[in-house]
Each structure stands twice: as C-alpha cells, then as structure tokens.
Amino acid sequence: MKPYKLTFEDVIKTSIVFYVDESLEKRFDEFVRKKAQSIIKAKKSAKTISVDELIEFLRTESDALTRVLSILHLSKEKFLRIISLLRKIEGTFDVEWNFNKVNKKIKEDIEFARKIADLFINGKDNPILVKYLPLYYRERLNLTTLEEFKTENELILKLKDRYMGQYHKWKGDAVEELIRKRLKTLGVPYAKGKTEIIDVTVDWAIPNLQDPQIIIMSSYQETTSSAQSEKTRGMLRCYELIQHRNMQRGEKRIFINFVDGGGWLARQADLRRLIEACHYFLNINTLSMLDDIIKYHFPNLLNTN
After folding, report:
1. How do residues 150-169 score in pLDDT, each as one tens digit?
2. Which residues are within 8 A (CB) of 129 and not within 5 positions of it... i.e. 6 or more apart?
3. What element of type H or E holds 192?
C-alpha cells in the first residue's frame, strides 16, 4: 500500500495523552514500595540519621538539599543567610553565595558537605551558633530523618512524585521499544547515534549510520518542559538538512517524526511544525504505517541482517 502523510487532524485523532503499560506501572510501583519499606523499617527502629549518612545523601541525590530544607521548614533564603553567617564567622565572607553555588560546593567538597550535614543535624545546640543565630532559626536545625509521613500510602505517593523522572525515563524507553520491535519484526537493521551525512545525532538510522536511507527522530512527552523546544529545533534541523541534501545530490532519503503524548498535544504550535517538517509523521497508534513506508520506498531493506 502506498504510504501517506498524516494531517494535523489525523494526528489529533490518533495521538494519545498517556501511554499505559501495565508491566511498567508494576515495575515502578514495586520500585517505590521497596524504598518505602526501607524507610518505614528505619523509622520503626527509631534510628536517627547520622552525619555520614546525610553527607552521602546530599552528595548523591540531585535534589537532596531542596528536600532537606523542606523537611526542616527552612526557606532557601534563610538557609543562604545562615551560610553567610558561617562564612563571616570563619572570616571567608565576601559576597553571598547563591543556592546553586552552595549545592555544587556540597557535591564537590566533602569537608564543606560535612559542615553542612553537621549544621542540619546538630545546629540547634551548636555553642557558636547559640551566640550568633536566633533560636527561631536554630530550632529548625535538628534533622532526625529524611522522611516525614503519617501513613504508608502518603509515603508511597511522595516517593512516586520524587522519582517521577525515573518513571518518565522508563516510559520513554518503553515507547522506543515499540519502534525497536517493529523494525526487528520487519528484519530491518538500524542504528542510533551521529551520522556524518548530516552531522546530527539521530534516534533511528535505517539501515545504518554510514548511509541511512530512513531517519527517525522520536519524542514521547506526557508533560510539557523546556526540553521540548530544544527537541523541536533538533527535529526541524534534521529535516532541513536531509531536504537540502536530497535536492543537492538527487538523493531520496526519508525523514520521519515519531511524536506522541499529552505534552505535545498541549503545545500544538510545535506539533504543527513537526507535522509539516517531515516526509511522514507517526505516533503510537499509527506506528504500523512504518511497514508500508519501508516497503514502498526501500523494499531492499526488508529481511536483511
């Protein structure tokens, strides 16, 4: 069957808001519940966090400092004032550091991380701070745990929010697996990476990066983010370069945008541009059209290894 390009109306009708994968949902749920049980066990044992444990947490978790300040009910601004006070006491203050600089120094300088961890746990009764820091601030510097929750269900929901980045990564991988399985079923070889023919890193090069006849750029987004703008620019640039090469050299390379999810439905201006800037546009519900595209344009690629 001769393939055709989806219209904007076709895309709106066939696009999905959320991709539901029961095995992925189960995997994420088990991942979170395992972490929750570990936290509950520690709480039942009445174990308080140590300085070394807090140092490890602050230096390995990307949002650790923000999370600790939230538990302590201490704003970033008040925290930065306390850091300025510590630096003044040490005689190293020149200008106040911003939050990102403090966070970076914690991750790069273990002695500074130890100082901050000790502040969070023992700051309330620190004899030097008693002299220079009001009780209103000091009484917050008494960290005993990294988790505050009333019920197990509340903890699980908090952890699911916290690890949403992991969830979206797994879901993105699951959506890419749909494309991968389709190509494997067709027996079509593919690769991912930078191809010199257009000097762009591509998501799918068929049959290889050296001489791709079909290039697919893929993006699944359930939520909107600034990264979408960058992804849009990359996909538009890829099509532009392929079109230019096709005209200059008389080639017939095909460029496909595979885009789906509620995050893209929410940004219809970008979605329209992506539909226009490709030879074919696919989503999860129309992925089977990839068969006809390959069979029509490059039948020689089928059932090769």
Report:
1. 788 888 998 898 888 899 99
2. 123, 138, 141
3. strand 191-195
Structural domain range at position 198: 8-21+168-301
pLDDT digits (tens, 9 = 90+) for 237-290: 999 999 999 999 999 999 999 999 999 999 999 999 999 999 999 999 999 999
Of 142, 164, 186, the last residue of a domain is 164
Say how far apart CA 252 and CA 246 lie, in whole Å: 6
What are the structure tokens assigned to 158, written together? 């908090």
Whole-Å CA distances, 8 to 19, 29, 116: 20, 36, 53
- Please state the pTM of the whole predicted model: 0.72
Which residues 6+ apart lie within 8 Å of 7 measured at CB?
275
CB 25 within 8 A of CB 278: no
Q: How many domains does the chain have?
A: 2
User: Which tokens belong to 186?
Assistant: 């067709």
- HEC per residue, 203-263: EEEECCCCCCCEEEEEEECCCCCCHHHHHHHHHHHHHHHHHHHHHHHCCCCEEEEEEECHH
Q: Please report whether residue 258 resides in a domain.
A: yes
Whether a cis peptide bond, with omega within 30° of 0, leads into 207 is yes
How many alpha carbons lie under 13 Å from residue 175 in its C-beta half-sphere? Answer: 26
- Retrieve residue 73's tokens: 């009910």
